[in-house]
Amino acid sequence: MQVFLRQIDKKDVGFDWRFLVLSILSAVILSLCFPKFNVFIFAWVCLIPLIHCVLNSKSVFSVIYGFAAGFVFGLISIYWMLYFLEINTRSFSNSIILSFIVWGYFGIYFAVWAGLLNFAKKYLDNVKLILFSGAVWVILEYIRTYAMSGFPINSLAYSQSIFYPIIQIADITGFYGVSFVIMAINMLLYFYLQNKNKKYLLAAGIIIGALLLYGLTRVAQFNGEYGDRKLTVGVIQPNIEQHKKWRGSYAAAILNTLRKGANSFADKNVDIMLYPETVLPRRLEESKDVQEMVRQVSRLAKLTLIGGMSDENKKKYNSVFVLSQNGQIAGKYKKRRLVIFGEYLPFRGLLSKFLKSLSSINTTGELSKEKELEVFKFGDVTLGINICSERYYPDLSRALVLKGANILTNHTNDAWFLGMATPYQNFIINTFRAVETRKNLIVAANTGVSAIINSSGKCTEKTRVGENVSFTGNVYTNNYKSLYVAMGDIFVYMCMIFVVWCLLFCILKKYQFIIKKI
Fold it and tell me: What is the CA radius of gyration of the chain?
């Protein structure tokens, strides 16, 4: 790599096909860091070619290289978007259009990062430029997490989900801190390759060493048995195919599968039993056969959590029912953050005119979102529930813990995606929610990955995609408040302040000759 970079090392060159190839190479290698490939170590070096292209091109071309890298990264890593949208639009042409928009959306973020880095290179020294690069990347990931319902899947930090020691700083900075460090290491290694100055290599080694020391200490502290009270939980992964979920002819078979999964816990003394998202084939409040099944399985655990649709005031909600041991509804969590194009259509007035097949989102129809955040307290156990894509949002898990949750659950349905990478890419995000909040997190998935994740981010139990399986395991309650829970996204805000300061400094430098004349 070093030899090739030096061969094309020209300052502020015009458009160069070799630079475009290098940028795309970065995107391809970065894609390999995520499931199903999981070559997480590549993340620490894969952006070096792109950084080289951005820092050695004219501004307009650096933006082009950044966009190309982002688009290709989106295309490869979330290739499944095409299939997902085709299911929901029932139109291949519409799904192609929307997929290109989504992949281009990734490209925009890379392009903005590239453009700002190229602008700042003339006015910031290397140390400030390294910090600036990481800070800009963090801000863009923060925006991508929340803008237009948010779509933070495959953020840079998530590539390290199985590298437990390195991600432990998330209990201070959130996952954004991990992304920042990865970008900083890429920048340091780039400057080392360019200048052969060992101080950059030494700095990279010190940073990684410090993070590993902190991480190993925290992993040892928040081991599998950390907590106040031990509970036995039972998780049911029924593996119900998506096309069967809402067809009445399959309802009896589905109920039998759900009942059979729970029966395996008959002699296990289960405290909490969990089912996945929208697993009930009919409305619980309206269907007698569903109510009877629920009464039967609820006897097998002190508390049962089961996903289904609910109606209130002519609105439809994706819900998780909390059931007592006698089958009565003790609480109901309704989803607060909805999946774009899957559970609701944004800009309906505009998009429905051009993409008419989107007018009917899916078999459940367009859903409503709950405004109130609720936790469910039972003795000394307080459950913080989230559904499916709500795992994307660290602020939501943080809010649940601030409200008293001492165990987190995630109920999801990945039956849409068959053998694709999506269930794995969705699952790894849960690891960071557990580390950020230092809470045990239970995942109940339908045709996905179900697991018990302890407060260090390690899985103590884990299933494979496509299994019809039930398992039990232990979780531990705790009332520990991490710095991230206490302070929130203060690291992101610090990055924002630093970037604004750098940009003001650069602008003043650029126009200082005008200021002097004035």
Answer: 24
All domains of the chain, ordered by start, with CATH? 2-221+490-517 (no CATH), 229-487 (3.60.110.10)
β-partners of residue 237 are: 469
401 vs 396: CA distance, rounded Å: 9
CB count in 10 Å sphere of residue 162: 15
CA distances from 132 to 57, 118, 518 (A): 18, 11, 30
The DSSP code for 12 is T
- 7 conformational bin, left if phi > 0, alpha if psi -120 to 50, beta if neither: alpha
DSSP state letters, 105-165: HHHHHHHHHHHHHHHHTTTS-HHHHHHHHHHHHHHHHHHHHHGGG---TT-GGGGGTT-GG
Q: Is 34 within 8 Å of 77 (Cβ atoms)?
A: yes
- Is 56 in a helix, a strand, or coil? coil
Strand locations in 181-256, DSSP E?
229-237
Among 184, 195, 293, 287, residue whose Cα is nearest residue 236: 293
Q: According to the model, what pLDDT value does residue 94 have?
A: 80
The end-to-end CA distance of the chain, in Å, is 48
Residue 41: per-residue pLDDT: 97
User: What would the DSSP string read from start to end of 262-301?
Assistant: HHTTTTS-EEEEE--TT--SS-TTT-HHHHHHHHHHHTTE
Is residue 140 within 8 A of residue 112, CB to CB? The reply is yes
The pLDDT score that the predictor gives to residue 495 is 98
Q: Contact at 8 Å (CB) between 166 and 207? A: no
Cα dihedral 130→133→135→140 (10° resolution): -170
**3-state SS, one letter per residue, for 387-437:** EHHHHHCHHHHHHHHHCCCCEEEEEEECHHHCCCCHHHHHHHHHHHHHHHH
Q: Which helix (H) or strand (E) holds 344?
A: none
DSSP structure class, residue 67:
H
What does DSSP assign to residue 507?
A: H
Mean pLDDT by 10 residues, the chain (518 residues): 52 81 97 94 97 95 97 95 78 84 94 97 96 98 90 95 96 98 98 94 97 96 90 96 83 94 92 95 90 94 94 89 93 89 66 52 66 92 95 96 97 86 95 97 94 96 94 96 97 98 93 61
CA gap 64, 15 in Å, rounded: 9
Phi, psi of 140 (to 5 degrees): -65, -35
